[in-house]
Amino acid sequence: MEPFVFRQCVNILKATGRKANSLRSMRKEIASVSDESIYHHAYHYFLKEHLMEYTNDFAHWAGEALEERALAEQLSNIDPYEFKCIMDLRKEFLDVIDGYLERFPEPREVIAGDEFYFNETITIIYPAGVWVKNLAEFLMVLKYINAGSIYFHFYEARIRLGSGIDDFSQWISHSAGKKELAERIRSIDLFMHNIEEIREYIAGVIEEDLKREMEFTGSWK
Amino acid sequence: MIEQYASIASKGDMVLLQRLAERLSGKSFLHINSTFAGGGVAEILNRMIPILKELGINTRWEVIEGDAGFFDITKKIHNALQGDPEKITDDMWNYYLETNRENAGRLDLNADAVLIHDPQPLSLIRHKKDGKWIWRCHIDMSNPSKDVCDYLRQFCVKFDAAIFSVSKFARAIGIDEFIIPPSIDPLSEKNRSLTDEEIKTVLDKFGIPTDRPIILQVSRFDRFKDPTGVIRAFRLVRKYNNAILILAGSSATDDPEGEAVLKEVREYSGDDPDIHILMLPPFSDREINALQRIATVILQKSVKEGFGLTVSEAMWKGKPVIGGAAGGIPIQISHGVTGFLVHSIEGAAFRIRQILNNPEMARRMGEKAREHVRQNFLITRQVRDYLAVWYCLENRGSSIVEI
Question: Which of A6, A57, B78, B178 could pair with A41 as two cysteines, CB 3.0-4.6 Å apart?
Fold first, then answer.
């Protein structure tokens, strides 16, 4: 069996110096800001420790600072993992904002201090110093590995691999040969859980699978 | 020393710290600021320098020298960058430049990386020799005085990069600008666990009664920290709840206004026996630690703030913190989860009452607050980020770096 090498990532935040104080200026910036900035604001929601009201930074700002709740809900409904490239994701954000501006052309400006600040990240990827060669070892490591490693393999991998599939289920399916277990991991609703809950869920289904296998092996003997 | 952090800090941070240190091992790293004692910058440097040295980085910490006139000017610059309408005359700028020029002659500025902290030594960049120079701005520059900001820009653009604590402090300077929040040291005298006996000794020393809940604010005596606002909030609370208030602060050699603000606060508190105003000497870390551990509610009711590290200090001790929604405080306090953010004296009073009357909620918030600090605001994370920025500057290019 091919070993699973745990890696992890941290993000170092960079300011772009660009900001928005109204929906129109937000639209203008989303249209022209770097891909890295769109990526940061759309995907890094999943690194947060607590589930937030809205699922990306643009939606959060629209809801909390602009107080345009309907727009916030619509932006929040955009699943960044459905897009193959940032250009398409950027277009989707713009389409939603344009649609809203057609219906409500004069949204107010935010109060001073509540502007949206566009950032980017430099992602540093490094080995966690652990590798495993079977599912039992995988389970043991998963329970204690840093949250940054779970983020890297479970969320970031979907973009990196371009297939929308996470590293964990990929390895479990291909190397451990457990397609059904991999499917259970792929069925998680990403938006409804924080990293710790994802850890708990995956550990739970693997543990269940291992126990079942041990019981089966026991009765067969 | 590093091993001691391993059982406390995030494991992932420790692994990356080690890998970055291996790559930067033997290189020299110079920090320059304006005081060895007082305030958050000196405090972090006091703890960070030994860690960097232990990681194999050849690290030095230098402090610029200046007379009272120089520090009066730099205090005005500091206040102007935080939004006060200060006027800096040409003579004052010349004195500022001249003092830094003298310091450049006195200090050894040779290093592979130089981190200049805050505006006081900013114009040392004119005397740059080699290496990567990074300006580390700790203050809230979200609404700076335009004249002062424009003048300082000529120095900022000469740096290889700038680091701000919060996104909204960053200005469009035209150089790489990184966002790195500061941090606390869990092993320092200010944050380590204390015995009951140690706490009692401190309370006895200051004559603090323990028969009622304690409301505490620890900060410099600075108008931006709104100490009189805290007293007004306390007076609103006392209509409903019996408690005592402690305002504890220390002086800093680069803050000539401290004495004046302290006098104002004393006058404002009158002869109220339930308000304890403690002017602590520098290095009163154990005293602050004990006060934070014994407090029921901790405030940082700043109206302007660089980052407000006392918030993370209090959260690390498992306390719910009520913070003004200024500077870096909203990054530390997740409203309703790890504490409360407030926008007014009345708001502060209301949240104090809420915590005093809901000890179970306060306990839950305190637990989450401690974990939030462990993941995000410990010194190991900050050292990691400084080394990461340095490494990225030396290996410019991709937004993805594999180490």
Answer: A57
Contacting residues for A174 by C-beta, under 8 A, at least 6 apart: A2
Per residue, the 3-state secondary structure of chain A, as one string, reads CCCEEEEEEEEEEEEEEEEECCHHHHHHHHHHCCHHHHHHHHHHHHHCCCCCCCCCHHHHHHHHCCCCHHHHHHHHCCCHHHCCCHHHHHHHHHHHHHHHHHHCCCCCCCCCCCCEEEEEEEEEEEEEEEEECCHHHHHHHHHHCCHHHHHHHHHHHHHHCCCCCCHHHHHHHHCCCCHHHHHHHHCCCHHHCCHHHHHHHHHHHHHHHHHHHHHHHHHHC
Q: Which residues of B fall within a CB distance of 8 Å from A112?
A: 143
Of B180, B337, B401, the CB nearest to A124: B401
Cβ contact, residue pair B12, A49, below 8 Å? no
Contact B175, B162 (CB under 8 A): yes
Q: Which two tokens stand for residue B402?
A: 């594999």
User: What confidence tens digit (pLDDT) does each residue in B91-136 have?
Assistant: 999 999 999 999 999 999 999 999 999 999 999 999 998 999 999 9
Please, are residues B55 and B65 in contact by the beta-carbon 8 Å criterion?
no
Q: Which residues on adjacent β-strands are paired with residue B248?
A: B218, B278
- Tokens encoding A177: 């040969």
> Are A12 and B389 within 8 A, CB to CB?
yes
Whether the complex's predicted ipTM surpasses the cut of 0.85: yes
Tokens describing residue A175: 């190397």
Q: Which residues on chain A are in Cβ contact (under 8 Å) with B177?
A: 14-15, 17
The alpha-helical segments, DSSP class H, found in B164-207 are 196-206
Check if A57 contacts B (Cβ < 8 Å).
no
Statement: the pTM of the whole predicted model exceeds 0.80: yes
The whole-angstrom separation of Cα B312 and Cα B184 is 7
Task: Give the start-to-end residue ranges of the domains of chain A.
Answer: 11-120, 124-220
Pick B15's closest partner by Cβ from A15, A126, A144. Answer: A126
**pLDDT tier at A218, thresholds 50, 70, 90:** low
Give pLDDT tens digits for A33-72. Answer: 999 999 999 988 777 766 678 889 999 999 989 999 999 9
Q: Do the Cβ atoms of B168 and A117 come within 8 Å?
A: yes
C-beta atoms of B16 and A10 within 8 A: yes
Strands (E), B88-143: 113-117, 132-137
Residues of B in contact with A146 (CB under 8 A): 10-12, 15
Q: How far apart are CA B100 and CA B73, in angstroms?
A: 12
Domains of chain B: 2-183+378-394 (3.40.50.2000), 196-376 (3.40.50.2000)
Helix (H, G, I), strand (E, B) or coil at B318: coil
Stretch (H or E) spanning B348: helix B345-357
CA dihedral (B359, B361, B363, B368) in degrees, to 10, reads -160
Of A15, A127, A145, the CB nearest to B167: A15
What amino acid occupies position A82? E
